């Protein structure tokens, strides 16, 4: 995965990809080149990306996080 350093994109990518400075076309091109020429890096990021999706971004995980937040709000406890 490749994304800019804009907003929450780096947090979504985590350790599963490359982040470049928003608006820097040359940095984006370097990230693309790196993945094109290095199959080991590409494979590693692919494995990390799959793990990250399964841990954080499945429908079940997002639903559970939503339920957990509702429970916190309804119980009157402060959100962390």
Could you explain the architecture of this structure?
The protein is mainly alpha-helical and 80 residues long. The protein has one domain (2-75). The protein is built from 4 helices and 2 strands; from the N terminus they run E-H-E-H-H-H. The chain has a two-stranded parallel sheet. The two termini are 29 Å apart.
Brief sketch in words of this structure:
By secondary structure, this protein is mainly alpha-helical. It has helices spanning 9-13, 25-37, 39-56, 59-75; strands at 2-4, 18-20.
Notable characteristics:
80 residues, mainly alpha, two-stranded parallel sheet, 4 helices, 8% strand
Helix content: 55-70%
Structural class: mainly alpha
Classify the oligomer.
single chain
Biggest β-sheet description: 2 strands, parallel
How many structural domains?
A: 1
Low-confidence stretches: none
| Rough outline | elongated
Number of contiguous helices: 4
Note the beta-strand portion. Answer: 5-15%
Number of strand elements: 2
Radius of gyration: 17 Å
Strand order of the largest sheet: 1-2
Mean pLDDT: 94
Terminal Cα span = 29 Å
SSE order, one letter for each helix or strand: EHEHHH
Q: What is the topology?
A:
Elements: E1 2-4, H1 9-13, E2 18-20, H2 25-37, H3 39-56, H4 59-75
Parallel strand pairs: 1-2
């Amino acid at each position: 995965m490749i994304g800019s350093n804009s907003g929450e994109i780096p947090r979504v990518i985590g350790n599963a990809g490359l982040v470049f400075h928003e608006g820097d076309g040359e940095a984006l091109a370097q990230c693309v080149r790196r993945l094109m020429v290095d199959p080991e890096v590409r494979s590693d990021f692919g494995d990390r990306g799959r793990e990250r999706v399964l841990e954080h971004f499945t429908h079940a995980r997002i639903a559970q996080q939503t339920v957990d937040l509702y429970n916190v709000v309804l119980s009157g406890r402060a959100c962390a």
